[in-house]
Design goal:
- It is a single chain.
- The protein is about 70% helix and about 0% strand.
- The protein is mostly helical.
- It has a domain at about 10-140: Orthogonal Bundle (Tetracycline Repressor, domain 2).
């Protein structure tokens, strides 16, 4: 049972969600049991099941909360009166901060739950279209093409041989971001 949209979630429910988030991030989803979540949150199993029919439903609710927060942050960053490269940097920093807190197990287990991926992609298409209207991204490249290239680069980012050429994942992700958003050309050649 979920609190209605007009009601503030109960303190105990919030404690369960926060404890589960912390445990999942550190250890992955599969390894953590309902009992461990209850122990960490100070809730009984009866209280847990009052709010969540099972662990998977709790995971989905946490994931949806993160998606909503991420979409809100995209909107906030896009509304800022800062240069486009700074917006990209802030979006990248948000993603880096989030993923740096997560265990490898958690990342691998949460990715299949990307049921909201289409919502994120639609928001990113809007972000790109808005940047084009402001003259921050070349207007003659379709936003859908930009997103398709992004998806292909994401596939490439899973290449272990390529990743091993970098000191750490942050260095790799930073170069990935710079290549995608700013290309390989410099100065006078960048606008040809």
């Amino acid at each position: 049972m979920e609190a209605s949209k007009n009601q503030k979630p109960s303190k105990k429910r919030t404690q369960i969600v926060e404890a589960a988030e912390s445990l999942f991030i550190l250890h992955g989803i599969k390894r953590i049991t309902v009992e461990e979540i209850c122990r960490a949150s100070g809730a009984s199993k009866m209280t847990f099941y009052k709010y969540f029919p099972n662990k998977l439903e709790l995971v989905i609710q946490i994931w949806n909360k993160w998606i909503a927060e991420g979409l809100s942050e995209i909107d906030e960053i896009d509304a800022m009166d800062i240069p486009f490269p700074e917006k990209i940097h802030r979006l990248f920093q948000r993603k880096t901060d989030l993923f740096s807190k997560m265990s490898t197990e958690f990342i691998e287990e949460i990715l299949p739950l990307e049921s909201e991926k289409e919502k994120i992609n639609q928001r990113l298409l809007t972000f790109i279209s808005d940047a084009q209207r402001r003259g921050e991204i070349r207007p003659h490249i379709r936003p859908e093409f930009i997103m398709a290239v992004w998806d292909k680069l994401l596939e490439l980012s899973g290449d272990d041989l390529l990743r091993r050429k970098y000191a750490d994942d942050l260095e790799f992700q930073s170069e990935f971001k710079d290549f995608f958003w700013f290309g390989i050309l410099t100065g006078k050649y960048a606008s040809i």
